[in-house]
Amino acid sequence: MLTAERTASGAEMPDRIADDLVHTITEMGHHDVLPRGACIEALRMVQERYGWICDRHLKQVADILGMSLADIDGVATYFNLLFRKPVGKNVIMLCDSVSCWVMGVDGVREKLCRKLGVSMGQTTQDGEFTLLPIVCLGHCDHAPAMMIGKDLYGPVRPEDIDAIIDERRGAAS
């Protein structure tokens, strides 16, 4: 039995992108020299609305912008801030750059995994958090660094993790 795909908020993923988004993406395509120039922003908008980019929505954006599915999938899978699989309500991007490694990201990673009960790349059972590595957050002067949603943290110590996660859980409820 197949289960319905869900948005990051837990709602059933709609078959089609909402009309207002279709209109906006269409307009963006018309204003770019090449409609495909709007694809990154279009995919970002779809993700912002639904939490991640499902195959149906990817195909719809490709059709609107006159791109092949393979071409737009190449864009969507290239950028690690575009999610092609369901993620939690809060995505934790843990920087694994050299600066963060030198400054102790291993201890932060271990504490995060233990606190959340997941390994890197996994989502918590309650769907609240997804823990992902990222090449660099550009916050090297505050290493080790991590980002939850649009909030940047650093330097993060293992002993900071409980308060950060508990605060985010409280902010979500």
From TrEMBL:
GO terms for molecular function: 2 iron, 2 sulfur cluster binding; metal ion binding; NADH dehydrogenase activity. Keywords: 2Fe-2S, Iron, Iron-sulfur, Metal-binding. [2Fe-2S] cluster binds at residues 95, 100, 136, 140. It comes from the Bacteria. It holds the Pfam family 2Fe-2S_thioredx. PROSITE patterns: COMPLEX1_24K. Binds 1 [2Fe-2S] cluster. Its cofactor is [2Fe-2S] cluster. Belongs to the complex I 24 kDa subunit family. This is NADH-quinone oxidoreductase subunit E. The lineage of its organism: Bacteria, Pseudomonadati, Pseudomonadota, Alphaproteobacteria, Acetobacterales.
